[in-house]
Amino acid sequence: MKIHKYDTVIVGAGGAGMRAAIEATKRSRTAVLTKLYPTRSHTGAAQGGMAAALANVEEDNWEWHTFDTVKGGDYLVDQDAAEILAKEAIDAVLDLEKMGLPFNRTKDGTIDQRRFGGHSRNHGEAPVRRSCYAADRTGHMILQTLYQNCVKEGVEFFNEFYVLDQLITEVDGVKKSAGVVAYELATGEIHVFQAKSVIYASGGTGKFFKVTSNAHTLTGDGQAACFRRGLPLEDMEFFQFHPTGIWRMGILLTEGARGEGGILRNKDGERFMEKYAPVMKDLASRDVVSRSIYTEIREGRGCGPEGDHVYLDLTHLPPEQLDAKLPDITEFARTYLGIEPYTDPIPIQPTAHYAMGGIPTNVQGEVLADNDTVVPGLYAAGEVACVSVHGANRLGTNSLLDINVFGRRAGIAAAEYAQKADYVELPENPAEFVAQQVEQLRNSTGSERVAELRRELQETMDANVMVFRTEQTIKTAVEKIAELRERYKNVSVQDKGKRFNTDLLEAIELGNLLDLAEVMAVSALARKESRGGHYREDYPNRDDVNFMRHTMAYREVDSDGKDSIRLDYKPVVQTRYQPMERKY
Amino acid sequence: MSTATLDKPGSGSQQDASPYITVVFRIRRFNPEVSDEATWQDFQVEIDPKERVLDGLHKIKWDLDGSLTFRRSCAHGICGSDAMRINGKNRLACKTLIKDINPHKPITVEPIKGLTVLKDLVVDMDPFFQAYRDVMPFLITKGNEPTRERLQSAEDRERFDDTTKCILCAACTSSCPVFWNDGQYFGPAAIVNAHRFIFDSRDEAGEQRLEILNDKDGVWRCRTTFNCTDACPRGIEVTKAIQEVKRALITRRF
Ligand SMILES: Cc1cc2nc3c(=O)[nH]c(=O)nc-3n(C[C@H](O)[C@H](O)[C@H](O)COP(=O)(O)OP(=O)(O)OC[C@H]3O[C@@H](n4cnc5c(N)ncnc54)[C@H](O)[C@@H]3O)c2cc1C
Ligand code: SF4
Ligand code: FES
């Protein structure tokens, strides 16, 4: 075991982690621990764009953007945070441009903007061009640009270090962050990082679903590490299902495709979104479009022999436009489906995409231990966190924005905290939990296999807690997850070595997924209403009287070591907007 | 090789009963904890030929041999984790469909060449990223920053579009015979990333970058074998980018 000491430790080197690192490195001695090489992070997969009311191509302002964000989130958004997001968006985009990001340009040489779902002029009048983009690889360009600037600033990275535990020490009755424990992939060695402040920027958890746009490595490690240490997770029942994943594979085809004029059609060739969202049509918010697709499929208007998908039709768009604006996704269709999007519609289905919930923070990125107490020295930003700017449903292009705005904020706040704080004493035997976990998995002779448990988990999640949910389906999922968690105790790995033991790490990642799936299902069961991404067929309406509040889930362990989940609730921050019915 | 029949898209054969076929993966294994020698190992996998080579590797890892080790993340050609030598050619495992590489013969999978193998298909990427960092891969400007964005015409933006696509997968560099023989050579990927800034109208450090690439281990080592362009999974015209850098060095115009 090795012990390191830094002022600030950042967990994750995606957009949020690197944006934080650029700030933190200027202000404090900073280490970035990341399980992937920074440029491998899933921010690189983002396609469509980053929202900011630059008003480069038509009238726009940050207040309209705030409204759309609040409405898009079905009013579960904390409105103070949404205001910050929309206001700071403009500088966030300009900062990236100054760092070198090659945005697409208008005729005048300014940053070009395009339409995206849920973003509107003057509180829902008509779609507005707010998304700043670099072809359909905006996330790639953000990730590259931030990495380039990390190289410039001399950010210190520990690549292929997996953070597996959060260290918390109680000082005078206050829980404080003391550091993290990481496992080095190359050697199998365990490292303790003592740090005055820690920022989680470890991304999403999509891999508990089968059909997903998320990378294999998005297993919610950060959420799981904090949760296990008694910290809450907020709004975990809210998961976004993006309407246009490649049929069966889940690979994303950006909403920008519809922003450029693409149309969804059922087996009769009908533009069905006109029925469900007369104004915004194909650009209604994602939860609405995903449900509409499944309604078409359920009512027998799906395409293909099994009627299990619909089409994304780009054939009426000029090939030059597709080449210039959507080169990557048209290539995905060619590579993975053998389909030529110039002439043929692309089969799609909703794909599990984005975790609205996560580690609760305030607008400085400080992690909350309950509804109002912060954990000194602990921060989170990006998809791992829940500020909450996305509420019950995130608008497209608001996450690339979130990681930049709140990544920057967390980086500054954490480093400034580290400048004046002292180190918190490490718990006795700080590496104990990770060492035991690793040893136990390595030595286990149990009969359960990681891949099999993961398959069963993903199947139950897809079948029971996806776009449509009911009391019964969620209960089925809760029971199945409990069974899988029990069987997980008996899991073993084949690779017993120390070097690059990805077999072992997949087992650990599965443990995290199981814990988080349970939180999601239990939170969903208790929310007896429909709001944003959480749709209960047995409670199809939004219920502001009982459920206009954030879910806060806590791990409880009783004296026999048996664990359970306790749910609590947190009020939503409302400033200017009163909840209204959401129509597109 | 030529006798195998590949699926032709739209040939109507999709309706046939089971899409699964048996494919042999012949994989270069190396684990220094077990032995100093690398060996070939065959695995038989039932797989739909429309699946990716990465799906095949996962089937092996998940159902047959958990110790098989490779890097991967996004699974759709965007993160650059899984460049490997598949049937002797550098490709991304997640972007290569089995039907496209003759599944009726064993499919060979080896680590990319020229970088130290650490375990199975995992190589040491540090020298590769070091070369990248050496070309100062970040925008350098002088004077005061404007309050709004810097202006750039659509044409100026287009000028370096191709080289912004790079995902740093190393398929190009590790397919380059010059790099195999001499690891000191910057390699195509670093030059591609220098190109991305040299030809960006906003950047003001082109001269400095050109000087770096004028070094004995710089662009002049390139022998224009086009391996890199063939290997690039992002379709970047790597050789052309290198040529443009060479020309800029001679004319000092970019
Ligand atoms: C296909 C796709 C397209 C998208 N398109 C858009 C879009 O157009 N616009 C938009 O706004 N949003 C989009 N999104 C959403 C957005 O891209 C993501 O939410 C966002 O990029 C997440 O960034 P992040 O920095 O939080 O996490 P990530 O980029 O996922 O980074 C996570 C980091 O954490 C590290 N990490 C994870 N676990 C550990 C651990 N245990 N120890 C150490 N390190 C760890 C990883 O190595 C990685 O560096 C898209 C998402 C997907 C999947
Ligand atoms: S130029 Fe192409 S092959 Fe080379 S590293 Fe970049 S993406 Fe990979
Ligand atoms: S796994 Fe990301 S490029 Fe292949």
TrEMBL record, chain A:
Flavinylated by SdhE, about 5% flavinylation occurs in the absence of SdhE. GO terms for biological process: anaerobic respiration; electron transport chain; tricarboxylic acid cycle. Its cofactor is FAD. It is found in: Membrane. It catalyses: a quinone + succinate = fumarate + a quinol. It is a peripheral membrane protein. Keywords: Coiled coil, Electron transport, FAD, Flavoprotein, Membrane, Oxidoreductase, Transport, Tricarboxylic acid cycle. Residues 454-584 form the Fumarate reductase/succinate dehydrogenase flavoprotein-like C-terminal domain. Residues 467-494 form a coiled coil. Residues 7-400 form the FAD-dependent oxidoreductase 2 FAD-binding domain. The keyword Electron transport applies. FAD binds at residues 12-17, 34-49, 221, 383, 399-400. Its EC number is 1.3.5.1. It comes from the Bacteria. The modification Tele-8alpha-FAD histidine is found at residue 42. InterPro entries: FAD-dep_OxRdtase_2_FAD-bd, FAD/NAD-bd_sf, FRD_SDH_FAD_BS, Fum_R/Succ_DH_flav-like_C_sf, Fum_Rdtase/Succ_DH_flav-like_C, SdhA/FrdA/AprA, Succ_DH/fumarate_Rdtase_cat_sf, Succ_DH_flav_su_fwd. This is Succinate dehydrogenase flavoprotein subunit. It comes from Streptomyces mashuensis.
Automatic annotation (TrEMBL), chain B:
SUPFAM superfamilies: 2Fe-2S ferredoxin-like, alpha-helical ferredoxin. It catalyses: a menaquinone + succinate = a menaquinol + fumarate. Its cofactor is [4Fe-4S] cluster; [2Fe-2S] cluster; [3Fe-4S] cluster. Pathway: Carbohydrate metabolism; tricarboxylic acid cycle. Keywords: 2Fe-2S, 3Fe-4S, 4Fe-4S, Iron, Iron-sulfur, Metal-binding, Oxidoreductase, Tricarboxylic acid cycle. GO terms for molecular function: 2 iron, 2 sulfur cluster binding; 3 iron, 4 sulfur cluster binding; 4 iron, 4 sulfur cluster binding; electron transfer activity; metal ion binding; succinate dehydrogenase (quinone) activity. GO terms for biological process: respiratory electron transport chain; tricarboxylic acid cycle. Belongs to the succinate dehydrogenase/fumarate reductase iron-sulfur protein family. This is Fumarate reductase iron-sulfur subunit. It comes from Streptomyces mashuensis.
